Amino acid sequence: MNGPVVVGVDGSPSSLTAVEVAAREAGLRGVGLRLVHAFGWPAAHVLPGLPWEPSGAGLRELIDGTLVKAERRAHQAAPGIEIMREVVVGEPVMVLEIESRTASLTVVGSRGLGRFGALLLGSTAGHLAAHAACPVLVVRGRSSPAGPVLLAVDGSPAARGAVEFAFAQAALHGTDLIALHAWNAQTERAYDTPSDPPFVTYDEDRLRDEEQRVLAEALGGLGEKYPDVTVHRRLVRGRIRHTLIEASTDAGPVVVGARGRGGFTGLLLGSVSQALLHHAHCPVAVVRTSEE
User: Fold this and answer.
1) Angle CA 284–28–68, to nearest 5
2) Measured between alpha carbons, how far is 265 from 271 in angstroms, rounded to an integer?
3) Per residue in 236-247, pLDDT tens?
């Protein structure tokens, strides 16, 4: 999709950092940047003590100032990009979800000016990761994340979009791609049938070979499509969420599917995706497939 990069703006430090990241992404993709500020009615983001005028003049002044600051930060991060500004009446989660339908990427900060600012993950970021129609990049972790793209591989059909996005992201940024597949004795491939109890003896060598095959098949065909991307395959035995969070220390960003194998497949956002959104040390890109 050649749509703009959309970024949610509410004036918080987290959203301004997201604006900088979004501007650079727009510049690399050669598309415009769309700054979107959404507010409910009455506006949930109006600070205590702000005069509420029937004409809305005080509110317009606040919003204009927020967008001007965001636009300035965007131009500093990526001079020359086309910037559009949009103010929409509505709940931010719904406004940005609608905006994502015509965007190539939606970028948000991990926390905004919501009521529960101390939460690790804001409601807007969490909702978009589960419902957006395009990849969502949640900016969190280190202030200046740099490093290879880290791809969380689980081998599920739903994660194919995340694999393709990770290759494209590495190509855009001129960085390496680390394809990490974490496994342990509790993975579904450890047993012959779903009814096998967790204490059944399994062949570790056979299981490791099977996980290696899963990793290879997940990356199949994309090396030829992106010949300039250097791929490092990592097969790690360990706790999946812990392994990925630890690996994110030196990455930027980590790319994951919205939901993968195991657990409650009916959920829109899987446990691994949620763990990374809450605890990763770098930005997290969540990619949903069109079937989800």
Assistant:
1) 80
2) 10
3) 998 889 999 999
